[in-house]
Design a protein that fits this description.
The chain is 32% helix and 21% strand. The protein is of the alpha/beta class.
Amino acid sequence: MQRQKLLVNGERLHQELERFADFGRTESNGVTRLALSEQDRLVRNYFKSTCEELGLTVKIDDMGCMYATLAGTEEKPPIVIGSHLDTVKKGGRFDGVLGVVAGLEVVRTLVENGVKPKIPITIVNWTNEEGARFEPSMMASGVIAGKFDKVTMLQKKDADGITFGDALEKIGYVGEEANRLKEATALLELHIEQGPILEKEALAIGVVECVVGMACFEIEVTGESDHAGTTPMNMRKDALFATNNLINEIRSRLGSLDEDLVFTIGRVNVYPSIHTVIPNKVVFSLEARHKDTEIVSTFKDFVQSLPHLGLDEGCDVKVTKLWERDTVWFNEEVVNHLEQSAQSLGYSNKRMVSGAGHDAQFIASLVPTAMLFVPSKNGKSHCEEELTTWEECEKGVNVLLDTTLALLSK
């Protein structure tokens, strides 16, 4: 069999993606399907029944992750393809679900072409990747990889006070710990880029080398509250003015550190937030991401040096590290397979990094793992305008199919 000539059914892929989007579709053609919600239960039921109709065996683990397996002729660790079915509120039709439906389409293509795999093929749906209802993100894959404590995660509550464990039980998807993913020949995750690079460079495929390292801090600036109309400017200890100085320095210093460094001040809270009162406290977040651990270390050192910058305004600055994650490099052999498949299919491609977190970064500590990106229109994601064309989706799944066949032929 010539691997490059076996292609997926693009129209079937299109129809299946739209069918999955029906579970939680919004008026503006987005999707709201929060983890362990009723819509999540319904889409899980549909996924399960669809897989069983294809002859796959479906198992559920203790975190609600779903594993649908096409048996192989030999008892070997499976090739695993998948992502997640949960979304953010008013999210898009492609984030996560594309990776799961890709697994379905790969299996369907193999079955209809009479390919009996030597190695089992498993389609996975990871529970609560988004963390939109229950924090943190990538919860289930984090538990499976030993990054999070299971007991602690089961007690995490949503905005209504419902625990993750209770919600999982309510939708009927509490399985056995013995069903967790423990080994695999390879794990492949197809995902939309969620950024503008592939579209800007007119490329069809991004072969992901790593998920970048990142660190996040909370910075608290403390001054004194006084009357806004009676306190002279040279006698103020204005926490917001001091924060402005900090932000200007952050933009200047980090902006010149490395062109691939991305950094964000995503949250700023000003107290007491009264227009006639000089702010006595400002609390803001600062995070940065880069693949080079030395660059991340330089960022961390810089943040720890910020307190002295508050002195000009008579303010104190306190820095607290909230969390940190190291760069996760994917398995080079699997990355090479994806790259070779893209090239053999004639698809324009490049190697790139992921600035966003994905389940694959946790699972990479357990099994050989790699990721594939397809373009996002205008770089948009986590919104109803999220769009990847059907042709772009099809190309991504074709690369997965080709890589799967390459792994089967080894």
